[in-house]
Amino acid sequence: VQLEESGGGLVQAGNSLKLSCKISGRTFSTYDMAWFRQAPGKEPEFVAGITWNGGISDYAESKKGQVTIFRDNSKNTVYLQMTSLKPEDTAVYLCAKSRENHYYILKHPDDYDDWGQGTQVTVSS
User: Rounded to an integer, what distance in angstroms lies between the CA atom of residue 76 and that of residue 22?
Assistant: First the structure.
């Protein structure tokens, strides 16, 4: 399975970005997916997750109201819409596929077994 993120870049604080993650090699629509972010020297931090059918989504407490995760199973793609970006949002953003599906969103990196290479998001002040 391959996951490929895109949509990152350099933006000014207060602006928005939409990240995309396309998955290939598996039946995308059967997997829960999530976005994490990783700053240099730190562990991946959960940002948002969504169940296989898009029926349930959940967010890091600090990200609620700022980001929205959604998916288009017909395009094998999961998205992360981010608004009101701040310099502290600067990180590599990674999408990940869950090991198993649940009726809730798992938030630990160990619960995900396939990862993309990430897309860099840099927010300038």
Answer: 6
Q: Which residue has the higher pLDDT, 24 or 59?
A: 59
Share of the chain above pLDDT 70, in %: 99
Task: Give per-residue burial for 48-62: e unless 16+ CB within 10 Å, then b.
Answer: bbbbbeeeebbbbee
What is the distance between the alpha carbons of residues 8 and 27, in angstroms, rounded to a whole number? Answer: 25
For the four alpha carbons of 103, 68, 79 and 8, in that order, the dihedral sign comes to: negative
CA distance 7 to 51: 22
Residue range 46-81, pLDDT digits in tens: 999 999 999 999 999 999 999 999 999 999 999 999
SS3 of residue 73 by DSSP: helix
Decide: 60 and 44 in contact? Cβ < 8 Å: no
Enter the DSSP assignment of 52.
T
Residue type at 109 in one-letter notation = P
